[in-house]
Amino acid sequence: MATSFRQDAYINGQWRESAKRFDVLNPANQEVIARVPDLGARETEEAIAAAHAAFPAWAAKPAKERVQILRAWFDLMMADIDRLARLISLEGGKPVAEAKGEAAYGASFMEWFGEEAKRAYGRTIPTTTATRRYVTIKQPIGVCAAITPWNFPMAMITRKAAPAIAAGNTIVLKPPSQTPLTALALAELAEKAGVPKGVFNVVTTHDHTAEIGKAMCESPLVRKFSFTGSTEVGKKLGAACVGSTVKRLSLELGGNAPLLVFADADLDLAVKGTVMSKFRNAGQTCVCANRILVEDSIYDAFSKKLTEAVAKLKVGPGDEAGVEIGPLIDAKAIEKVERMVAEALASGATALTGGNKHAAGAQFYTPTVLANVTKEMRVNREEIFGPVAPLIRFKTEDEAVDIANATEFGLAAYFFTKDVNRAWRVAERIDAGMVSINDGIFSNEVIPFGGVKESGLGREGGVEGLEEYLETKFVNFGGFD
């Protein structure tokens, strides 16, 4: 899968080399595909200073001018979508067709937030006294810092960078060490689109992640911090931000999404939706259905249909024709899935299909359906992040909702039913930031994405996503006669 890409970091409009570099591996075969600068706190502080210097001029630009640059960035991404898709697949393992979908999804945030920036309205407030007039205005926050994950190496960047830049902020990004090349490709296109130097900066690292995070969290120049990743790490970063300089925070953290199938559901639709949700990106998404709850009376019928569908999924390298399941991202990921499945099987679960590594390579796992899973098993309590669907029986709606809510996480939830009353009732009762009814995929640029409980703070996407990067300033005009 030959494709061209940048291999240097991007700070203040300059491509930054480094004597110390780290390997970027293809997860399908563990081959080295690039060597990228391993930067640290000093370079991060330099990028923050550059972003701070660029902020006044960028914030002062009329929204319409910022929008034109974002539109050019979007157009360049869409024109380059095939190369971007190959790059996402090469460093992340995602099948090329799926990677192309992510590239388009990532570009959509540039278009959406560019359009929304022209509508960052303030308001007038009815006065309390004849001598005053009250208004609010929306202003950019300042320098933003962001840390993004490897499972959506483009979309998780643009979902943060697009609203930040559209609102008039500048940003310093640390992409994951597993997938830095997509971030650098975005910087390349930003430069071509006319994004001024210092507005978008990419600091790559492997060995210095903690010190870069510390620099971002503690810098007095950084006014907003956004992180997508594990709850454990997010808590530490959030505490560091609040404990040092009281920054604005957006945290999109772990999930443990339930998918409920009620007896009145369209079984074929439920199976299709389950496969789409559970097995997208080999189960490596924060919103994928982590545990499948099935009403007792249809459990056997649903299990059979799901097993047949999952057994047909084609496993292999992302650039191979027809592949639907690529590799897991690294050795730790495959070890975790193996361990969780082994524990479930030892505790009484049954593998209806799969349950083992796949012959395609060291980091491939066979798509798996586990029957007879209980609430106590780790595959129900923890995020699997792999192509494994645990099936749990329930008898009543109340029991299903109780199982669904019995977790510290609350990012996404899914359920299938034909009963409109139940649809409203269960949607309101499930404790999650996003609920999808009779549909296994819901993410797009126009909806607010985010969770409750320990799944995070704030929302990305939609009109709410722009608000996360704006301050509301109240202005009192006094002295009227």
Automatic annotation (TrEMBL):
Q: Where is the Aldehyde dehydrogenase domain?
A: 15-475
SUPFAM superfamilies found in the cross-reference section: ALDH-like
Catalytic residues of the enzyme: 252
Molecular function per GO: succinate-semialdehyde dehydrogenase (NAD+) activity; succinate-semialdehyde dehydrogenase (NADP+) activity
EC class name? oxidoreductase
- Keywords (A to Z) from UniProt: Oxidation, Oxidoreductase
Q: What is its EC number?
A: 1.2.1.79
Q: Which GO terms describe its cellular component?
A: cytosol
Q: Which GO terms describe its biological process?
A: gamma-aminobutyric acid catabolic process
Q: Which family does it belong to?
A: Belongs to the aldehyde dehydrogenase family.
From the Swiss-Prot or TrEMBL record, give the protein name: Succinate-semialdehyde dehydrogenase [NADP(+)] GabD
